[in-house]
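G.,

No rush on this.
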Amino acid sequence: MTFENLNLIEPILKALKTEGYTTPTPIQAKSIPLILQKKDLLGCAQTGTGKTAAFSIPILQLLHENQGNDKGQRKIKALILTPTRELALQIGDSLAAYGKHTGLKHTVIFGGVPQKKQTDALRAGIDILVATPGRLLDLMAQKYVHLQHIELFVLDEADRMLDMGFVNDVRKVLKVLPEKKQSLFFSATMAPEIMKLSDTILVDPAKVEVTPVSSTANTIQQSVYYVKGPDKRKLLLHLLRDEEMESVLVFTRTKRGADRVAKDIASAGVTAEAIHGNKAQNARVRALDNFKSRKTRVLVATDIAARGIDVDDLSHVVNYELPNEPETYVHRIGRTGRAGASGIALSFCGADEVPYLASIQKLISKNVPVIDNHPYPLTAKDFAEAASTIKEQKKKGGSRGGRGNWGNKPSGEGQQRSAGSSNGTQSRSSSANSNRPAGGPRNSGGGNRRWSSSKPKTNA
């Protein structure tokens, strides 16, 4: 199937062709026809599935087809509500790309920055508004935003809205929207509270579900390095010597950790910046723009700050610290391998993080291949000491978290190797080498062979 099979109008097809997109992802192929039929939609899709294009493309088409019916200043006909500034900006970029030939206007509003530029755009008149809840309610109270003409409403990343405490703000917005409208509701998970919220928004919705959050895209090559915490910095710098790691998103668990890692990388002569909630909004936007334009090679981020980051051809994601919630791992590595492209996900696992890795592998129903042959490996003693420490913490009722256990440890050294040799090292068979991710040392040692990481851009 191609986008031409979805009955899209020529202005949008022309824009998609310019962007290099030809084949819709499953969420796009399923959602676009239903939205064009003006049905309410309940979509369950994890990050990286092409969800933004799944709703932005048909919204542009529906509004373009009705263009010219109103006289005078443009009125806001579509509202897209999203939890984070980064995701709002990403959606704005998508609308600009896909709608460049439609004549439609949009703007993005979010907090943390002066409002004048945003209110100037609202005064000039727009067709589509992308907003975060807080700034939207603020500008509604100031009478800059009027929503009585809304025909299309999108609630994006509903699960994250609830996680971040925005549910009451969402309900306030819903109260002022017209009763007659088309509503689209997207969430990565469908917990009972999510379904309850969707029932207040949708009327007889069509339902679309793609890859659940418990799975990772097949286009992502995953691997893990067992390494001591103090050696993670050295291992990351060692891997960054590989020129194929051309665009790298690094995850830490804390804001302070993100700053420290970015500083360490920059001190080694590699362009790097950090992005997290304590950064000023203009600094976050600048860092993201620099990363997208390849001025910055490495972006170090916390989980909330990275939600919504959508970078074309992101070659690598590095879990500098494993998350203590396994679902977060799926969201993290979903930043690469997006929309059918290939990507590499590398994880650093300290001996005390093995329970986190066990939880991740249980969730995704697969063992993550281990790269043994690197300069800073853990020893059996390291694992034994960490296991003893965690055992003592559990006795005291103070385990540091993780929902897994210490199962599947060959020779006392962490999780089972995917190639599984009896001495705890990865097999040197040709099949093991052929699966080696770019950016990791070759298991057979030696040589300067480059491994392909090309990612054809065929999907939106």
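When you get to it, here's the other one too:
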Amino acid sequence: MTNTQSIDAEKAREFAVKTVEQLRAADFISFWAGGCVRDHHLQVRPQDYDVATNAVPDEIRKLFGKQRTLAIGASFGVITLIGSKEQGNIEIATFREDDSYTDGRRPDKITFSTPAADAQRRDFTINGMFLDPVTMETIDYVGGLDDLNARQIRAIGSPAERFEEDKLRIFRAIRFATTLDFQIEQNTLDAVCRYVAQLHQVSRERILVELVKMLSSEHRQRGVELLYKTGILPHVLPKTNLDGDAVNHLKLLLGKLPLNNTALTLAASYKTLTPGLSAKDVRRTIKSMKTSNEVAENAFWILKHVDQLIEANTQYWPTIQRTLIHPLLEDTLALATALVSTNKTNPAGIQFCEEKLTSAEQDLNPPELLSGTDLIELGMKPGPAFSKVLKEVRDQQLLGKIDSTEQAVDLAKITYQSIEP
């Protein structure tokens, strides 16, 4: 998959235009389709482009060459055209109609069809339009332009049928309403509420992709509110409870936290919605959501240390010092500060941390007086006692009780002897 952060928007657009032109030069019908059309009308630069055509997969591969195409989705009429890192890839899909969706995700059978029929099988009207990138004419069979102007999310045709076909659409309605700051049309919203329980048929990986997009939106507080009101919240954030007060608290909290930080946002969500859940349990839950190990471990570390920072002025200084020099300090302090602000509790701990962080580097994080190599040279045997000796020496250094190598050596010997007589 192409890294969207490396894509050049203008080169991606040029690539998408040339793709349509190449298909047309071979006498095929071809348009831009889906989200890139929606984004064009919203005056948002598309992050990727989809192309729809009457060329079938074999014809698409023959035209562009097998080395430049991937046939992973060929059974559903989709071929991936490989671009450069700056261009990104393009999915080229044959106009089709879908039959039943037994697994609640993919059609059991497809039939190649027409643009008008293809539009009817898509999820929401704002995603069901086509665009001619040469004339810039929009082909709208489903009323997508009207719904864009009305700023609403509306299922194409029967909402129940669309959700029966693909259960993830239940959550995607929430995600689009959040990221676009649109309303959900009433019949579509009613169907979302009716079909909530069927989200269990959707893989955690697919839900996670939509959840991260929602939680990264500047309108994520509204997204949380929609998750709560529709009953979806426990399905996308396992082990959370439907508690209106907790949801309102989380909305306030998210308003004070930076965007695009999945670990921090998940930590804040679980800290607020399930305060009785331990950091270890949250880590286990987040991993079950199929997040990366990095996201799960970062959320765990933040939750393990956030209360420590809130009460830093009353804590053992060496413990706080180690937290203040950790790479995740900024995220943890952001959550601690937001919690103190929204809970209207004593800010003394936060003030203590902020004051300490103004200290010079040699005062906040002075070079360690001894290392493991030093302990070996002193005749100590590597083992569990090592970490205890080094911790004691470091603690006393940070407390200002020792400040020389000689003092550190003496303390190390005494500590080692008390552990390894």
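The CA atoms of residues 191 and 277 lie 32 Å apart. The longest strand covers residues 49-53.

Enjoy the weekend,
O.
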